[in-house]
Amino acid sequence: MSQQHSTTSTSQGGPDRREFVTLGLSLLAGGGAGAADADPAGKTKFFPEEFWRERMKPPADGKRYGWVVDVRRCFGCHGCEVACKAENDVPLGHFIRQTIYHDHQRKNGAVARIMVPMSCQHCEDAPCIKACPCGALHKGPGGSVQVDYDICCGHASCKEVCPYGAIYIDPVANQAVKCHNCTHRLEVGMEPACSATCPSEALYFGDLNDPNSKVSKIKAELEKQEKIAQLRPEKGTRPRMWFAVDENHAVSEWEEKIPREGQSYSTEAYSIYNWKKKSAETQK
Q1: pTM
Q2: Which of 6-10, 136-140, 141-145, 201-205 has the lowest mean pLDDT?
Q3: Is the separation of the CB atoms in 139 and 123 below 8 Å?
Q4: By residue range, what is the domain housing residue 56?
Q5: Sorting pLDDT into bands at 50, 70 and 90, what band is 110?
Q6: Which residues contact 46 (CB under 8 A, 6 or more apart)?
């Protein structure tokens, strides 16, 4: 796995890996005040706030990175995915970001295909950070949710709680992998590889604290037009990704295609058998 994913280092005064893993696993297995919150089935979800509070705080850099995805403009070229894979050495069969296809029938009877470029939502209240037993998930520059590969133990709790299926566990390194907003590119004044590559200008990224940034301007304009929405806001994660939508691209049309907790992006999304099945459904 490319070391471009790693954003912090224990050599910079961070917590020792053994301390984090020992504390996390003891909380995971223990009971009482130190135990993690669990769902009705008894499956561990979140650790006590004192375990993740500092990691949820972004650096004091004054930036607030976010995304606007114009679903109306994407034509499914996969340029963002290819650029992401090349930039981050993502292996075959795995994705940090993926374009979701959805066929639906419009009001005029025509069948149309919606393409939705998806990746980590970089949530304000990130559940993956709360669930990580080894303390590897944290907020990086601009509030980007990132993984420290000096600490990650591959427990996969982060994947189990992500409401957007944006994390996968690398089968070789046995560590969590997700979008990190191409922090290594931002540090040298470049934008993320995906948005820099997109030929249809469907991906907008930047500092939401800067009213003059492109992403802030497009977000403000869409809010005026009431053509902006977020994915699964009921999860309460306060995602930093917004979608430009209209009557033919409403979130409710394609939301069901987006992976959920415990899932990751899949190559099955491009299966012609799935296309045929969905096309048949729209004809009913």
Answers
A1: 0.83
A2: 6-10
A3: no
A4: 1-284
A5: confident
A6: 36, 37, 127, 130, 131, 161
